[in-house]
Amino acid sequence: MNQFAQATEKDITRSIVEEFLGDFLSHIESDVIIVGGGPSGLVAARDLASNGIKTVVLESNNYFGGGFWLGGYLMNKVTVRAPAQKIFDQLGVPYKEVPDIKEGLYVADAPSACSKLISAACDAGAFMLNMNKFDDVVLRDGCVSGAVTNWTPVSALPRAITCVDPVAIEAKCLIDATGHDAVVANSLAGRGLVDLKGFSGMDVENSEDAVVNNTSELFPGLVVTGMAAATCFGLSRMGPTFGGMLQSGVKAAKIAEEIVRS
Ligand code: 48F
User: Fold this and answer.
1) Is the pTM of this model over 0.90?
2) The complex's ipTM?
């Protein structure tokens, strides 16, 4: 007598294909597409989806989390400065206050923080599309209106081997959360529609506030968050501390929600 319930190969195949395509089809017209599933994008996904906004996260890797799995220098501890530890409280991430300095620097285990943030975005109901590489914007009436995407391995194939056209998902707003590369904003810069400054040298004291303050709608229908905002506006990088990323994601979600509801 086998322990597991009876199902054959075709049953498993059908369940995967039907579930995936069902979810995909119900999101080809969404409210917000977040490109990049690092810390800023995941916080935005959590907040938007939990407010009933139909949200897709496009991530080119097979894993979500971006740079949040490691603090820096291949060491898996992440720091945040007050008030961002409140987001750790919401997520249930244990952390310690760093002693012997001014108050308000906290350290946590990166795998714990990152996995809880991914869970929060999933639990809130965001549609999580990994192995999807953002290829281009849908640009309609001078407004970003969707994302063109392809499977990551397909988009890496040289055109001499094969040319597979991507597909597009429509949305009222995109959030560029692709980190230093600011891939979505760059797709507009390449057409002369926006001017990107490139991020500046490290200055942890000022850069986190600057990133949150500059989290904004860069172009009609395109909000920039996290290190993508630093790249767009010529802000200092901040190195391995993540409060600015998390708070920037909170602000990006608010701006995107206003766009969707306007
Ligand atoms: O780089 P990333 O973690 O962005 P972030 O949210 O946070 C930055 C910090 O991790 C750190 C820092 C602050 O302390 O300096 O670097 O701004 O995550 C960006 C995500 O975007 C994905 C990429 O795989 C990563 O998970 N990404 C990049 N290009 C694409 C993409 C693309 N073309 N399509 C889809 N996803």
Assistant:
1) yes
2) 0.99
